[in-house]
Amino acid sequence: MTESAGNKKEDCHAANGVKPGRNGMVKNHHHHHQYQKQEKVYHAACNGELYSRPFMESFEETPMLVAVLTYMGYGILTIFGYLRDFMREWKIEKCHIAREREEQKDFVPLYQDFENFYTRNLYMRIRDSWNRPICSVPGDKFDLVERSSNDYNWTFEYTGRVVKDVINLGSYNYLGFAENTGSCATAAGDVTVRYGVGVASTRQEMGNLNMHEELEKLVASFLGVESAMTFGMGFATNSMNIPALAGKGCLILSDELNHASLVLGARLSGSTIRVFKHNNMQSLEKLLRDAIVHGQPRTHRPWKKILILVEGIYSMEGSIIRLPEVIALKKKYKAYLYLDEAHSIGALGPSGRGVVEYFGLDPKDVDIMMGTFTKSFGAAGGYIGGRKDLIDYLRTHSHSAIYATSMSPPVVEQIITSMKCIMGEDGTTIGRSRIQRLAENTVYFRRRLREMGFIIYGNNDSPVVPMMLYMPAKIGAFGREMLKRNIGVVVVGFPATPIIESRARFCISAAHSKEMLDRALDVISEVGDLLQLKYSRHKVLPSLDRPFDETTYEENEE
Amino acid sequence: MDMKSMREYMGWLYYQYLLITGIYVLEPWEQSIFNTVLCTMVAMVIYTSYVFVPIHVRLALEFFFELVRGQPESTVALMNQR
Question: Pfam families of this UniProt entry (chain A) (predicted)?
């Protein structure tokens, strides 16, 4: 038993560490035969016929020394934080941040919890890496307004200079539609001249333009569902529609690392929420079985409905949901699936239809397909697609449909033009070539970063690339050093990630040319050597495709 | 040239020390406080080890050699008694 388990691990390793993933588009001619042989061995050994291509995801373990040093760094900064708080309390130093008024001092303190402590003493010191003002289109390059601070980031002044042509590795511009020239921009301009910019009403009253109807039909045909509905804001789509779908007496099973909009929507609905481990199908199955066997908490009545909330691509981890397994579980236990494709629509799949097409599944299996237009379409807003009766119900019962202003006409036109471009209906092959270029860029960028020795999380095919930094000082240092070399990146720290796992998150775009990526990679390597960020020891935990049993732990012990 | 590259290397090492301990984000006076405290503690450790380590090592060696020398003496004494 252990011997076959050992062999399986070797095969998984071989496919995992060496060959790049394929998004249905990239052709590796000289690796083709070898890869075919390994591919057959890999998926015959793992998980039956659910996956049509290898699912290669890795989350390398934090090196022990790095973890210890990170905790030490946070400890030292906490001590200095207490020192500064003491000085502010005793008026030795002027306090710049919000504090309670004199009259409130005898009440329950407002700003004493760890989050406020962290904001005052750690976030403020490195705050210049966030909220940087941009003064051009955030395409592949952008212009930055330079600012400086005299009092250690409490206030900023503009120096008057504009830093030009900073390479953009932070915008969610996956297909490069964030541009101010081209057919989308001209169409949006024409529509502004015809319809104006404001709609001045909600969808239900006077805000239902013929463009909205056209957009909804187009979205439904793009996704392959019966009907779709669009909303003005992606966050509001999640938080205002989940309460309409689930209520008291329902059970929501949500992934550990779901976005704040999904969590807010689940909480607003008033259902019971249970959380399963990130992308872990065994945990989800256990929760489903427990829910069906035991029913509601005290009365043991069956749940009215069970709704599983997952995302297509998780933007902080770069991981892709194991959709074939989720759908198999959903069908077996008769639950409903809500799939949030905010980052994966337009970015995955041979023709950009998202994670459902990436795995080769039927869109009708997913009950509610939600997504946003912010990332791949260069606009703003969200949509929900599904069966016609579901969408008709949402039209009347969703808070967002009744109370929120409808989408602005130029935004609608941008979505219509870009979606037609992706589908190929405007008669050009621009959409196809962009999707292909995104896939190539993703595979190339991830492979090069991994070879350089950085720790990269996530699936080989996801265009979101989180690179681990770990130590608190390196968060600020990385952002600043990259900007000095004219590259704009997004660094993420504590509240959005676990405290020691801070990271820099790169978003690859189809607008990036290979020269830009090469330049960016050289600079990242240089900064990585300067800051000693190349932590990887190439000891990758293989993602298990078979259920956990007694031999699993023995395998990891080796 | 060697002095210059040596100084650059020392500068890079100091930068790594700033990054790893997290001092990099602090204001200069806070960095000075931390550096002073750390250097004081390191100086005290070095002084204590300079004063006490030779004596401790000598005493430990004496103790172990005493054990080894004591052993053949006692077996010789036993044989002589019989």
Answer: Aminotran_1_2 (PF00155)
What is the C-alpha separation between A384 and A367, in angstroms, rounded?
10
Percent of chain B past pLDDT 70, that is, above it, reads: 87
- Nearest Cα neighbor of A93 from A151, A148, A155, A149 is A151
Helical H segments across chain B, by residue range: 2-21, 28-81
Distance from CA of B5 to the nearest CA of A (A): 15
Measure in Å the smallest separation between the Cα of B25 and chain A Cα atoms.
6
CA atoms of A404 and B70, how far apart (whole Å): 94
Mean pLDDT, residues A475-504: 93
> In chain B, which residue's Cα lies nearest the Cα of A72?
B21
Which residues in chain A are closer than 8 Å to B12, comparing Cβ atoms? 530
Q: How close A131 gets to chain B, by Cα (Å)? A: 18
Q: Chain B, 22-41: which have a CB under 8 Å from a chain A CB? A: 22-27, 30, 34
Q: Which of A74, A122, A531 is closest, CB to CB, to B19? A: A531
ipTM above 0.85, yes or no: no
Give Cβ neighbours of residue A536 (< 8 Å, ≥ 6 apart): A60, A450, A453, A454, A455
Q: Beta partners for A370? A: A340, A384
Q: Which residues pair with A275 in a beta bridge?
A: A254
* A500, two tokens: 């020691």
Residues 6 or more apart in contact with residue A226 via CB below 8 angstroms:
A220, A386, A387, A388, A391
A477 → closest Cβ in B19, B21, B27: B19
Q: Which two tokens stand for residue A510?
A: 């189809």
Q: Which of residues 264-303 of A touch B (CB under 8 A)?
A: none
Q: Which of A76, A122, A530 faces B21 most closely, judged by CB atoms? A: A76
**Tokens at residue B72, please?**
């053949």
- Going from the C-alpha of A251 to that of each of A269, A307, A426, the distances in angstroms are 10, 6, 44
- Averaged pLDDT of chain A: 86
Contact flag A77-B16 (C-beta cutoff 8 Å): no
CA gap A462, A321 in Å, rounded: 11
Q: Give the mean model confidence (pLDDT) for residues A306-315.
A: 94
Q: How confident is the model at residue A17 (pLDDT cuts 50, 70, 90)?
A: very low
State CA A468 to chain mean position distance. Answer: 16
Contact criterion met (CB < 8 Å) for A76 and B34: yes
Return d(Cα A429, Cα A424) in angstroms, integer: 6
pLDDT value, residue A58: 85
Residue B45 C-alpha, separation from nearest chain A C-alpha, in angstroms: 20
Phi, psi dihedrals of residue A388, rounded to the nearest 5°: -65, -40
CB pair distance less than 8 Å for A73 and B22: yes
The verdict on B66 touching A (C-beta cutoff 8 Å) is no
